[in-house]
Design a protein that fits this description.
Elements: H1 5-41, H2 44-63, H3 69-87
Length: 89
């Protein structure tokens, strides 16, 4: 257990950040799942809307440092390709 006051403060802060980061990652995963479901169902408009929300949540997670920027970019790219496959046939 930490004895120094600053170390105790960091422990509290880290717990709070962990909760925020986990919630943000869960939102990202949910948005990605919604996009993939819409693509699987063949719902063009639903997929477009879900992709826009997923892209936004991924960019936010990357910008806040919850997720690495290149990881977020890769996820956006793959989702975009999946959505694009609905329109190009």
């Amino acid at each position: 257990m930490a004895n120094i006051k600053s170390a105790k403060t960091r422990i509290k802060r880290n717990k709070k950040r962990e909760v925020v980061n986990l919630n943000r990652l869960n939102a990202v995963r949910t948005a990605e799942k919604k996009t993939r479901k819409a693509v699987a169902a063949g719902d063009k408009e639903g997929a477009k809307a879900a992709f826009k929300a997923a892209e936004s949540s991924l960019a936010r997670a990357a910008g806040k440092g919850t997720m690495h920027k290149k990881t977020a970019s890769r996820h956006v790219s793959r989702l975009a390709a999946a959505v694009k496959s609905l329109f190009v046939k």
